[in-house]
Amino acid sequence: MKTERILNRKNIQIENLTHLFYSSIPMLNLSEVKVGTKIEFEGDPYDVVYREHSKIGRGGAVLRTKIKNLRTGNVVSHTFQGSETLKEADLSRNNAQYLYREDNAYYFMDEKTYEQFSIGKDQLGDSSKFLKEGTSVNILVFKGEPVNIDLPIKIDLKVVEAPPALRGNTADGGTKQVKVETGQSISVPLFIKEGDIIKINTRDAKYVERV
Fold first, then answer.
1. What does the buried/exposed string (b/e) look like for 86-103 if buried means 16 or more CB atoms within 10 Å of the residue's CB?
2. For residue range 188-205, what is the model confidence (pLDDT) as tens digits?
3. Which CATH code, of 3.90.870.10, 3.40.640.10, 2.40.30.10, 2.40.50.140, is assigned to 91-150?
C-alpha cells in the first residue's frame, strides 16, 4: 500500500509538471497570427506562409491560411474560425553551420555540441536555394528533433552566370536573370555582371543591392 501511495504521488507530480509546461506555451488569437508565425497544429509544427483575416457578417471572423509543415515541407490550406485559439509551436533555436549536400539531404553541424545531422530538401523548401557551405543558420528544434532552419533575412551570394547588358540599355531600369553560386536564378538590374556579390532577401528571393 505504501509503495502504491508513493507511485500515485509521483504520477500526480508528473501530471502537474506536464500541465505547467503546456500551460506556459503561449496561445494566440487569430488576429495575432501573422506570416512567419510558428504554430502547433494537429501535433506538428507549422509555419504560416499566407494569412487572410476577414469578418463574415454576424458569423464572426475567420482566418484563411496556408501553413507549411516544418517536418515534411507540405503546405496545406486551412481556415480557422473566429473563436479558435492557436498554440504557438514550442520551438527552440540552436546555432548551426551548413556543411554540404548529399543527394536530397543537407548536412549541418551544431555550433555548440558539434553534432552533425541532416534535413531533407522537401523539409527545407525554398531555404535550400540559398545555402552555401559555411552559412550560419538557426536550427528549429521541436520536441528534441531538428525539423527546419531559419535563414538570415539577407544573405550575400556571388553571381556565377550573367548575360551581358546591351550597350545603352543599363539606364532603362530593366532587369535580367542571373545565376548565383547556389544555383538559384535571381532577377537583378542590368548592370550586375558575373563575379559581383549581391545581397538577396531570402524571404521573397529578391535582389536587394550589390555589395
1. bebbbbeebebbbbeeee
2. 999 999 999 999 999 889
3. 2.40.50.140
